[in-house]
Design goal:
CATH topology of the largest domain: TIM Barrel
Largest sheet: 8 strands, parallel
CATH architecture of the largest domain: Alpha-Beta Barrel
Distance between the termini: 30 Å
Number of domains: 3
Number of strands: 20
Strand content: 15-25%
CATH superfamily of the largest domain: Aldolase class I
Helix content: 25-40%
Length: 504
């Protein structure tokens, strides 16, 4: 079941949201009574129950907002049980003070906002012994291994158990909880109204992750990064899977660098079919592969992993997508200029001057591709050592960041995050150094129209934006993951909808 937690300060708002989410398809609603700032009128709150509900009244030390006396809180919980609510949430230290009554099921819970204790099994045994219908353990994940332990706990217990980790490192426990035996999983009304760290909105749970439909046969995929919350990959890939009616789900995995190997092993054992890899793991993940395609090996970084049994194969779809974008741009520019020839890829890039801003994974992939095709490449990064290292690796030259305007490239490629949401007013390259003969390629896709892109269009440059590259690389990944042709138009529309300014 999918539960949505409602925490409003006024009865009217709480009742309205209860009705709304019941109509929207919530299987269960949790009313957080500790958020009501004045006298709690249970009769009013419980008069109409459009779907089953949980009553919770949490103290501050347990992550709640209750400020009145403990006796008043216990009275509220007993009254809710007497009213016949479906579930009541009781912390460990009060469970034996509130006896079972009627048909109300007892959730006996423990919350730890600092860590995930080592003794999860003994904690579970204590809670289950307190006449629990359901045990709930919610702890802070400080590593991905915490989430793995929590999922194993959920799968190994006799008493129905909600075992989840809070924070971005614990997102997997919220989405996969039902698969591992949890009776329900929690969501919140909106992204901006999280009650505990790492919670997911009801809309994203219902539309994108659909946890109720995840079963043992569901093939999992995901993006691995640190941080990962900003990634749009779950939206675009889950939309594509749904379009093709595949029993697949794509998750965000925040993984610290020192847990990459552990994570990859977990993937191989957990029906994970593939991964998108992004900052800061593109280079480190390559060393963990069973096999790597030639281009990715030359680049020294991967952004895609296909998992086949216990083997993991690395690819670089950034490279393919970027080269496709630049090739089309060059060919179109030449046609518009009245030059119509049939020269090959290497020939149209040969000798062309390129300035790449940035020295990360995308810059590495694009720089490698351009050098393979004979372009003359300069790398300029705010971190000089990274620029020098990349230039040495691909056979280009490094240019100090302060000197990036000193050359006149035929192609300018921005691989820095300068101009990315939320820093949308920044630009990595000054407009007065642009000219109409340049091709300007900004790899940022959120927003689609960056300050650099707008400036380039005003000057008359031929522009390639990051949306083109992002959709192409995701489409390549989809085909590597599934063997099917990707719904590229849908994937593009999904990104444009998500990054539309009305969302910000």
């Amino acid at each position: 079941m999918l539960c949505v937690t409602i925490a409003r300060s006024r009865h009217k708002a709480m009742i309205a949201e209860y009705q709304h989410f019941a109509e929207a398809g919530a299987d269960l609603v949790e009313l957080r009574l500790d958020y009501i700032g004045r006298h709690i009128d249970l009769r009013r709150l419980l008069a109409n129950r459009p779907c089953p509900l949980i009553v919770t009244c949490r103290r501050r030390e347990d992550g709640g907002r209750w400020e009145k006396t403990e006796d008043e809180r216990l009275m509220i919980l007993r009254s809710a049980i007497a009213s016949g609510v479906d579930y009541v949430d009781l912390e460990e230290d009060i469970a034996d003070k509130i006896p079972r009554y009627g048909s109300t099921k007892r959730i006996v819970s423990l919350h730890n906002f600092e860590e995930t204790p080592e003794d999860l099994e003994s904690i579970h045994a204590r809670l289950a012994a307190l006449d629990a219908d359901i045990v709930k353990i919610a702890t802070m994940a400080n590593s991905f291994s915490d989430s793995i332990r929590m999922l194993h706990l959920a799968a190994s217990t006799q008493t129905p158990t909600i075992a989840l980790c809070m924070g971005d490192l614990g997102t997997v426990t919220r989405i996969l909880g039902l698969r591992y035996g949890a009776p329900f999983t929690f969501s919140v009304p909106k992204v901006g109204r999280k009650i505990a760290p790492g919670q997911i909105s009801f809309e994203d749970m219902r539309e994108m992750y659909r946890p109720q439909e995840i079963n043992e046969e569901t093939r999992l995929y995901g993006v691995v990064a640190d941080p990962v919350a900003h990634s749009l990959s779950p939206q675009i890939h889950n939309a594509a899977f749904a379009n093709r009616q595949l029993n697949c789900r794509y998750l965000p995995f925040r993984i610290p660098a020192d847990e990459l190997s552990l994570f990859l092993q977990w993937c191989k054992e957990s029906n994970v079919g593939g991964l998108s890899v992004t900052i800061p793991h593109k280079e480190a993940m390559l060393d963990l592969m069973s096999e790597v395609e030639a281009a990715a090996k030359g680049i020294g970084a991967i952004n895609t992993v296909a998992i086949r049994g216990m083997d993991a194969v690395g690819y670089n779809t950034d490279y393919r997508a970027a080269m496709d974008c630049l090739t089309e741009a060059l060919q179109t520019q030449r046609r518009v200029g009245g030059i119509d020839d049939d020269r090959g890829l290497s020939e149209i890039f040969a000798g062309r001057g390129v300035l790449i801003l940035g020295a990360g994974g995308a810059a590495r992939a694009i720089g490698y591709g351009l050098r393979q095709r004979g372009a003359v490449v300069a790398i300029s990064s705010r971190t000089a050592k990274r620029a020098e290292k990349l230039a040495s690796d691909i056979g280009g030259r490094a240019l100090p960041w302060a000197s990036r305007h000193d050359i006149k490239p035929g192609i300018l490629v921005n691989c820095t995050p300068v101009g990315m949401h939320p820093d949308v007013d920044s630009c990595p390259y000054e407009k007065n150094y642009l000219n109409e003969n340049m091709i300007v390629f900004d790899t940022i896709y959120n927003p689609e129209q960056t300050v650099l892109v707008k400036a380039a269009r005003e000057v008359g440059c031929f522009v390639v934006n990051g949306l083109d590259m992002f959709v192409r690389q995701a489409a390549y990944q989809f085909k590597l993951f599934t063997g099917l042709e990707p719904p590229s138009k849908l994937m593009r529309e999904t990104v444009k909808r998500i990054t539309s300014p009305v969302r910000f």
